[in-house]
Structures are given as C-alpha cells and as structure tokens.
Amino acid sequence: MTYTQEPPVQKGFLLKKRKWPLKGWHKRFFYLDKGILKYAKSQTDIEREKLHGCIDVGLSVMSVKKSSKCIDLDTEEHIYHLKVKSDEVFDEWVSKLRHHRMYRQNEIAMFPRDVSHFFAGSTVTDSAPGMFDSISNLAHCHTYLLEMSQLLQSMDVLHRTYSAPAINAIQVGLPALPFTFCLLLPLLCPTFD
C-alpha cells in the first residue's frame, strides 16, 4: 500500500464520547476524506457542511484500544474518543484512519503551505473558541520548521560542494591557504585528515 495514492473515502456512524454538557457516548456520522475527518449528527449535515467538528488526522496522534474497540485522536487541543460496536467495523476504521493519516502526513510534507486548507467554508458548532487561531499558528509553525529543515539541508549540500575543491586544492599541495582556514578546515570538513 502506498501512502501517496489518495485513499478511498470512509464514512459511517461511530460513537463519540462527550464530556459536557451531555456526558456519555453519542452517535455521530463521520466522513473521512484525504486525511480530514469531519463529523456531524447525520450524513445530510455533513453534505450541508453543518459540522460538529473537523479533525486533521495527519496532525493527530492516534491510539487504538482493540479490547474496548476505542480509537483516540489527540490533536493537542482536544482528545477525541471514538468507539465502534463490532470488531469488523473497528478494524476497517483503524485501517482507513492509518492510511488517511499517512497520506495526509505525506501531503503536508509535500505541500506545507496548504496545511490548514480544509477549514475553509466549514461551520464548526462545538469547537472551543480560538481553535482556528491555534490551528493556524500551528500550521504556520509547521511551515516554518519545514522551511528551516530545507534550508539546513541546502546549507549542508553547499557546505559539501564548496569544501570539496578546498580539499582537492590542499591535496595538490597549494601552500597559500591562510593559517585560520587551515585550523578551521577539520571542523568544516570532518573527512579532512
């Protein structure tokens, strides 16, 4: 299974644990597409974008409790507790969530600027105030970290590219190198003897 291929849509009713105001397990319709898990009271509400919530599974930590048929998705802001009644449906959802999660993580790595695109047009009714600000900040931080990582990789390539001629020049026997450069060369080029 390759995680670059777009996974098929997964949808159906699951139980979602709620703490407040109506504590307990509530039946919700879930719709998983391209690593984004949306949920509402019914399929019609999903189609009308009348959502109760939206979770980017690529940015979530997923834990599975097979004995109780529970799936927990930790988004740092909230922990979503989901439950399934049958083993077959549980295994199917776990498999699909893992596939969508890997697909979404790959998508985020390839296109870091599009991390928060899935929130456009969504109406979320039971989310905490300021959630979108935090997610937006997280997306920006993630983008900056990816850019920094790419910059460090580029610097490493440049370091190897520019240090190689210096090593060749020393091996040929050019004595005109400044003393400071000769002291720094082993630090700049760990392979230099």
From TrEMBL:
Gene Ontology CC, one term: plasma membrane
Entry keyword annotation includes Transport: yes
Alphabetical UniProt keywords: Lipid transport, Lipid-binding, Transport
Domain of life of the native organism: Eukaryota
GO biological process, one term: lipid transport
MF annotations from Gene Ontology: cholesterol binding
Alphabetical list of InterPro entries matching this protein: Oxysterol-bd (IPR000648), PH-like_dom_sf (IPR011993), PH_8 (IPR041680), PH_domain (IPR001849)
SMART domains: PH (SM00233)
One Pfam family this sequence matches: PH_8
Residue stretches making up the PH domain: 7-102
Family of the protein in this entry: Belongs to the OSBP family.
PANTHER family: OXYSTEROL-BINDING PROTEIN-RELATED (PTHR10972), OXYSTEROL-BINDING PROTEIN-RELATED PROTEIN 3 (PTHR10972:SF15)
Protein name: PH domain-containing protein
Organism field: Neotoma lepida
